[in-house]
Each structure stands twice: as structure tokens, then as C-alpha cells.
Amino acid sequence: MEASFSLYDFEKSRDRIDEILQGADASYTEKKSIPSRDDLTFTNGFNVWCTALFVDIRKSKELNKSHTNPVLAKIYKTYISELVAIIKSHTKIREICIEGDCVWGIFDTPQKSDIDAVFSIGAKVSSLIDVLNIKYKKRGYSELTVGIGMSYGKSLLVKSGYKGSGINEVVWLGSLVSEAAELCGFGNKSYSDKEMMVSEVFYGNLNDHNKELLEYKAERGCYNGYVINTAMDEWVQKNG
Predict the structure, then answer these.
(1) What domains can be seen in the chain, in order of their start residue?
(2) What is the phi/psi pair of residue 147, to 5°?
């Protein structure tokens, strides 16, 4: 978020701190579905059941060393723009964040079918990387390897920022986001790690067909697999 200069007022700072710290614990209520952002204030929050999906590039430092800045810009622009397009195609997407070459999303998933739909998003992401790599290879660019992590559970949703300044963001706290990020970090990390990693709770909410596409990985404490979108893969097979 763009910011501009303002003087720091120590007295007002202490008042803001006290206002937040004196807030009642009851202001942090549990929700089975993600509430409207308009319901958030600087003194409340919601424990929300939802799903997180993370995608991150493996060995990005090597990628940055291998290309000129204009080429890097083309790679990252195509990668990020199409990841966002795919993540946005889930009807219950609620948040998309871009942090360097990591793109992650939060989905409202009150029904099991919503979780299966997030799994399908992960499959499309996998096929997108295959598509991008075909196009990169034809131009002599480095191909991408990514990890994909998915987790289902509770996250604390709060409004954080500088009250009265207009500078604020919705922040997702708790184990859900950190678990999905960790699972993403496992994806394609070693020879035996597959691209897609999902938590045991996420796996337990999938339908039988989707469960069959994954296998348990004891050393990571999760399920993993290589899962693609069949329609997108038709193009990959014809053009690879």
C-alpha cells in the first residue's frame, strides 16, 4: 500500500495501544463462513473456518541470476498474472496476496464441495506451470518448478493498520496460513517430494475421487501428489 509522511504522536500512540489491549475477548467470535470486511474494526476479529492455498517458486535465487531484468519481468508477470486469474476462478475466493514470487489465496469453504473446488484450483495451477514452461522453453528462458500447499482449518481474521490514516489491511493469523505455507515449502523440495502437498484435515474433506489422486507422505505428515487439469493438459501434450 502506498504511504506518505506524517508526524508520529507518542501520546496518541499510547491511546491506540490501550484501546486495542483493553478490548473484550468476546469481540473475537467464531464463524463458519468468512464475514464481510465491513464487519471488522480495529478492536474486534473473527475465528473463521476457511481454506488456504499457497504457490511458491523453487530455487528462485538461481532463476534471478540466470536472466536479465527484462526477461525476469516477463517471467514473473506471466506467472503471477495467470496464477491470480486461476485463483480468482473459485466462486468463493475472498483474499489474494502476492509476496515476492509466492501467491496465496484464502477461500470461504463452508461446504465440502467448496474444498474439492479449491483442490481443482490447485490442479489448474499445476497445469498452468506446464503451459508456462512450454512457452518459456521456446524462448530460451528457464523453466519453473513450484510447490503447492493447501490447508483447511481456522484462521483469526483481524483488521490491522494505523487507525484514522486509511492505511489498513485484513490480516489472517494462526496455524492455517502457516501450515499451508509450510506445505507449499515441502512441494518439490526434494526428489521424493511431489508438487502438491495438502494437510490431513484438507485431505479428509475431499471426495473419494480426489483422495485417490494423493498418497500419504509420512515424513511430511501430509498427503502429496502430482495432480493436473485434464483439459489444460490436452494442450500441454499437443504442444510440449
Answers:
(1) 26-239 (3.30.70.1230)
(2) -110, 145
